[in-house]
Amino acid sequence: MGFSNIMDSNRFSGESTLDPATDALIEARARVLGPGYRLFYDTPVHLVRGRGSHLFDVDGVRYLDAYNNVPGVGHAHPAVTEAVTRALSTLNTHTRYLHEEIVRYSRRLLATMPEHLDRVTYACTGSEANDLALRIAHRYTGRRGVVVTADAYHGNTAAVTAISPSNGDADTPTDHVRRVPAPDTYRENGTAGARFAADVRAAIADLDAAGVGVGAFIVDTVFSSDGIYTDADLVGEAVGAVHAAGGLFIADEVQPGFARTGESMWGFGRHGVQPDLVTLGKPMGNGVPISAVVARSVVSDSFSSDIPYFNTCGGTPMSIAAASAVLDVIEDEKLMTNAADVGDALRAGIAEVAGSSPMIGDVRGVGLYTGVEVVAPGTTDGDRAAARTLVNRLRDRQVLISICGRDGNVLKIRPPLVFSLSDVDWFCTEFADACAHIG
Q1: What is the pTM of this model?
Q2: Residue-wise DSSP of 302-342
Q3: What does the domain layout of the chain look like in residue ranges?
Q4: CATH class of 5-73+334-436
Q5: Is the CB of residue 277 less than 8 Å from the CB of residue 248?
Q6: Is the Cβ–Cβ distance between 127 and 158 less than 8 Å?
Q7: Which residues, including other chains, have CB under 8 Å from residue 100's CB and lie 6 or more apart?
């Protein structure tokens, strides 16, 4: 059976002894959902309610959510709830009827992007958005080759699974895909961006030699599943190489987008690069399924002028209402500034703990996206087992995070944007205690 870093590094093994009610629920879930679904943690969490950055289990125990970016503006945000309720109570059709709100929201969304990005197409999930972006890139360039990072995750359609190595080595044909290691700023010490660009050039040359050619280079600019590398100078040279070869750059903004970096609305904005296509997903509707592809019109129209695109639930009045409310909250509550300030405080607190913990090799991040390298003491070798233990010790202290990276050793800390300084104190107190009790 294939091993998926993104799904299996923090997977419930089924070996824990739990209370009878939880055991019964897990058994029922497995019976009706099958083996493809995964649960987090050695002891799964049975959640029934959320508010802001906090979650509550079936017994009323409160947890600190330091992981979930889908409710980007917080669990059960009243503004989103009200907007969705109002839309559902009024009308919820599809995009083959006229509706003013989709036009109003589209203008507002495009206004947050560089001027050359002037078309938007709606879907329901990031997987669908990335699938569509690949179709558009192939149509525009006439080439089907794709360059991705070695542990990328971009979704789970057939086409997108082929460019998502962290899903596990599925049987999807990948003769048109070339994988390059992400820029490892912890171990490459100032050379990561140049090495990354050199690898991208080599991948382009290999695609050319195979008669495939490069159609697209897709990356999320915080390298979220590769291990979280957030320096701002990592992708520019690589993007330039792709453009020089006639390929398109797809910025997958599902992870770094919607103000998460604290420096820019979109992750690519920190790198001085010009995407040809931008894909949006998860946080866009704060949990209501909506996603989008934003593109240069010359690129988008090369596809849509000949091939109509329709997604029944993409861009409905309900999903547009949720997405519009998300932008309202980001602006009204100044969540980009919050991401910057609280993210800095969080990393400072973690770094203080790391100073007395030899298993913490590196603390890095931007805004409310933080990666913590767990290593064998005295080395830079990733320690998968210790990272998993640490994640589960935090879970036992009601703090929820997960793991990413090639070696499954990087703690992924990615809370809702409403994470507060008091949440930072809670996190760092429990993090220090968890580190102290792992020997």
Answers
A1: 0.95
A2: HHHTTS----TTTT-HHHHHHHHHHHHHHHHTTHHHHHHHH
A3: 5-73+334-436, 78-332
A4: alpha beta
A5: yes
A6: no
A7: none
CATH architecture of 78-332: 3-Layer(aba) Sandwich (3.40)
CA distances from 373 to 235, 243, 412 (A): 21, 33, 9
Locate 387 and state its tokens: 């990272």
> Contact, 337 vs 314, CB < 8 A?
no
Query: Per-residue pLDDT for the chain (439 aa), expressed as one digit of tens each?
Result: 456 666 666 667 777 667 888 889 988 998 999 888 889 999 999 999 999 999 999 999 999 999 999 999 999 999 999 999 999 999 999 999 999 999 999 999 999 999 999 999 999 999 999 999 999 999 999 999 999 999 999 999 999 999 999 987 655 557 999 999 999 999 998 899 999 999 999 999 999 999 999 999 999 999 999 999 999 989 999 999 999 999 999 999 999 999 999 999 999 999 999 999 999 999 999 999 999 999 999 999 999 998 889 999 999 999 999 999 999 999 999 999 999 999 999 999 999 999 999 999 999 999 999 999 999 999 999 999 999 999 999 999 999 999 999 999 999 999 999 999 999 999 999 999 999 988 5
DSSP character string of 216-233: EEEE-TT-TTTT----TT
CA within 13 Å, CB half, 45: 25
CA–CA distances in Å: residue 166 to residues 9, 134, 201, 226, 255: 11, 18, 22, 8, 15
